[in-house]
Design a protein that fits this description.
6-stranded parallel sheet; globular; binds nickel (II) ion; alpha/beta
């Protein structure tokens, strides 16, 4: 989501985050002054996935020097609609990237597992959906490292991608991303799907942005976004585009700490 966005639920969510912060990320500090759409994090211990972490997992790679590739990215989940989205992507043999928030990942570990098992990438979107450039350096570290660790506990390996919430980053974030082996992924196409909860509008904006090298921002927590996906998949196919993960669209071997925008 963008800077300056103030969802109606932000105050309630920020209050929930304030109550739960101490128990959610070890040693977590105060909630940033700017209200952010922090997910509601359960104070109970993290759920475990029903299967053991993957060992020596090899993600199927799409060669984007051969195919004309586009990256669909889905932020802020997993959530109640992620399973349906995975079914749609699987039926179309499309790959995507999921930037998960730590608080959601530990509530839906099986969905995080499924995302990777079905060939998608999972990236770090902080624990509380924190606006990192407004947070203390210690807090940035906790938000990023706590989330990477939670993902590792579920999957058996750490993510290599992160997306700072609202695309808000600075040199401190870049440094912490680098030391955690994370490339920062922004986007080149914003569908504003959090604002306009109308599938036809979301689909139209995404379809307009379908071009080789594009990184398209979507949110799998909105049912209207998931409902827009079949039309996006059909349009991509018609344009001869392959839907691939962010790493593949960017040609693989991303540099930790570097910021990528897409085309
Ligand atoms: Ni977000």
């Amino acid at each position: 989501m963008r800077l300056g966005e103030r969802p109606a639920t932000a105050v309630a969510l920020a209050a929930a985050a304030l109550l739960l912060t101490a128990g959610s990320v070890p040693g977590s500090g105060t909630v940033p002054k700017t209200p952010t759409a922090a997910p509601v994090v359960k104070a109970t211990p993290a759920a475990s996935p029903s299967r053991p972490p993957l060992k020596d997992f090899q993600r199927p790679v799409t060669d984007c020097t051969v195919h004309k590739c586009v990256a669909l990215t889905f932020d802020d989940g997993p959530g109640d609609h992620t399973g349906r989205l995975l079914d749609l992507l699987s039926a179309a043999k499309a790959k995507a990237t999921f930037f998960v928030v730590g608080g959601q990942a530990v509530q839906y570990p099986d969905l995080v597992f499924r995302e990777v098992e079905e060939g998608h990438e999972v990236g770090n979107h902080t624990w509380h959906h924190t606006q990192l450039d407004a947070a203390s350096t210690a807090r940035i570290k906790r938000e990023v490292e706590g989330t990477s660790k939670a993902i590792e506990r579920i999957l058996g390996f750490k993510p290599t991608l992160m997306r700072p919430p609202y695309g808000a980053t600075d040199s401190r974030v870049a440094k912490i991303a680098k030391s955690n082996g994370l490339a920062e992924i922004i986007w080149s196409v914003d569908t504003d799907d959090w604002l306009d909860r109308k599938s036809s509008v979301v689909a139209r904006r995404a379809i307009r942005g379908l071009r080789p090298g594009a990184i398209i921002l979507l949110h799998d927590i909105h049912p209207t976004t998931v409902a827009a996906v079949p039309a996006i998949l059909r349009a991509a196919k018609k344009k001869g585009l392959t839907l691939a993960t962010v790493t593949d669209v960017l040609g693989g071997r991303l540099e930790p700490g570097k910021k990528y925008m897409g085309r």
